[in-house]
Amino acid sequence: MKLSKLIAYRNFLLEKSELQDVVYQSEREFESILHAVKTNPIQIRYHTQTLDEDYINAKVAHQQFNNTLNTLIADLESEISSEEKSYYENSEQEYISTTGNRYDGRIIHSLDIVKRTIHLDPETKTMITSRIKSHLDWKHAGMIIRPGREEFLRHMVECDPLYVVDHDEELINESLSHAEFNDEYLERIRQHYISNTFVNPNEQLLKTIPNGQIGFCLVYNFFNFVSISAFEKYLKEIYTKLKPGGIVCLTFNDCDYEHGVNLVEKNYGAYTPGKKVVALAKQIGYKQMFSWRNGLDFSWLELRKPGNLVSYKGGQSLAKIIPKTLAKSK
Questions:
Q1: Is the peptide bond before 161 cis (omega within 30 degrees of 0)?
Q2: Average pLDDT per run of 10 along the chain, which is 330 residues long?
Q3: What is the pLDDT of residue 200?
C-alpha cells in the first residue's frame, strides 16, 4: 500500500480519536441523569440499579474502544515508520541527482526551475504577503533564497542590504530580470551562490554570506524540493547567518498529510514530514513563531533565532525602489 494512503488513514483515525471530548461530555450527562434518578423519591422497580450498571458497562466499553483505537493508530505509526525509510532515501537520491546535475555539465535550464509554482488562493496570498511585510525593516539585512519569479522579491527591497541567493548566475539573473529593478538598485543587490557541496560535503552551502548579519530570510518554494538531510543543513547555516532575534520564513512539502506524500509519489516534491522539520528546527535552537497550512500543497513556517533583534543604523540613504517599467512611465 502507498504511504500516502497509510498517512491518510492514520490522520482520519487521529481526527476521530478527538471524539473523546464528546464521550466525556456524554458521560457527564449520564451522571447527571443517574444523580437525578437516585435522589428522586419516586423509585420504580429496579430501574435505578439497572441504569447504574448500564452506565458502568458503557464506561468500560468506551475505554475498551479507545484502547483498541489507540493500538490501531500505534500500529499504523509503526507501519508508516517502516515504509517511509524508502521515501527518505528516494528523496535524497532525487535531490542529489537534480541538484548535482547543475555541476557536471548537464545543467538544468533555469526555466525548468522557476516554472515551479505553488497555487495560492487569494486568502493565503494576502496572509503570506502581510506576514512577509511585517518582518521587513531597512535597519536589517534581508536574504531570499531561490526568489524565482515570485513577487515577494519586490517586497524584499525594504531590507538593506538585500542578499539574493541561488545555485548559479543563470537563476539569479532570471529572477532579477522578472523583478524589473532599475540599474541603480541592481548594483546594490548582493548576489551570492550556493556552494557545491557535492564536490566537498564538508563545505558550507552559504559560506559567502556573513554570519550574524541577516534580520529576515525568506525561502519560498525551495525546501519543497530539498531532502530532509539538506533541509537540516540549510536550517543550521541560516541559523548562523541570522542575527539574534532574526526570522526565517519558509515553505515546505509537509508529508504529515496525504497530499504532501502524493507529490512525492509523483516525483514532485521531497519527503519532509512537518513533525520532523519542526523537531529539527527546535533541536538547532529555533523558536517556532507561526505556521499555516491551506489544506493542500502549501505549508508555511516561521522560525526565530532567540535574542533581541537590534540595529545601530541611524538612517537610510536610499530612495524608494520602484519597478523599471513604472519609473519609465513617470
A1: yes
A2: 93 80 79 86 84 88 88 95 96 84 50 74 90 94 93 92 92 89 91 84 91 97 94 97 98 95 93 97 97 81 96 64 57
A3: 76
* Cβ contact 247:215 at 8 Å: yes
Strands 242-251 and 299-304, sheet pairing: antiparallel
Nearest-angstrom CA–CA distance, 160 and 143: 10
Q: What is the pLDDT of residue 99?
A: 77
The reported pLDDT for the residue numbered 104 is: 47
Q: What is the pTM of this model?
A: 0.84
For the chain, how many residues are written? Answer: 330
Superfamily of domain 113-329: Vaccinia Virus protein VP39 (3.40.50.150)
Residue 148's contacts (CB-CB under 8 Å, 6 or more residues apart) are 113, 114, 116, 117, 174, 175, 220, 221
